Amino acid sequence: MAHTFEELVAKQRAADEAHARVLHLRDTYGAPTAAPWTQAQTDTYETAWRAWRDLARDTQAALTEYAKDEGKPRNAIEADLRRAAKTPEETPGTRSGSGSSPAAGPGTGSGPASGPASGSASGGPPSGG
């Protein structure tokens, strides 16, 4: 299936929103080791985490396909995609009240490109499903 760059941007934004939701839930519920989560909290978090994982995986697969179709380096397309997917409050030089960017780059270990299943040191979800 051929993808347009605009479709990739929409996919990336959806993955970024899902990641922000996971981070929000983690901040709201606190660490499960500090105070046990209720079953409802666990179910909500796991559902949000799976949505992020699936959206990030689909975005990365579409990105790879798009780069092959365009005959361009994947990392160049991904950099363009990340810039295009940022919302105005995430753009450098503007102020954002959130303090974190859900569209963080692959080197930060906090964005979808690092892979939700990577279990990054920044508190990303564990690998597996």
What's the arrangement of secondary structure elements?
Elements (H helix, E strand, L loop, with lengths): L4 H25 L9 H32 L3 H12 L44
Helix pairs in contact: 1-2, 1-3
Any descriptors?
mainly alpha; 3 helices; about 55% helix
Quick structural summary:
This protein is mainly α and 129 residues long. It has three helices and no strands. Residues 94-129 have low confidence and may be disordered.
Number of helices: 3
Taking pLDDT < 50 over at least 5 consecutive residues as the criterion, the unreliable ranges are 94-129
Mean pLDDT: 77
What's the SSE pattern? HHH
Helix/strand class: mainly alpha
Instruction: Write down the Rg.
Output: 15 Å
Q: Helical amount among residues, as a percent range? A: 40-55%
Shape: elongated
Strand content: under 5%
Overview of this structure, please?
The chain is mainly alpha-helical and 129 residues long. It is 53% helix and 0% strand. The chain has 3 helices and no strands. The protein has helices at residues 5-29, 39-70, 74-85. The longest helix has 32 residues, at 39-70. The protein is elongated, with a radius of gyration of 15 Å. The two termini are 26 Å apart.
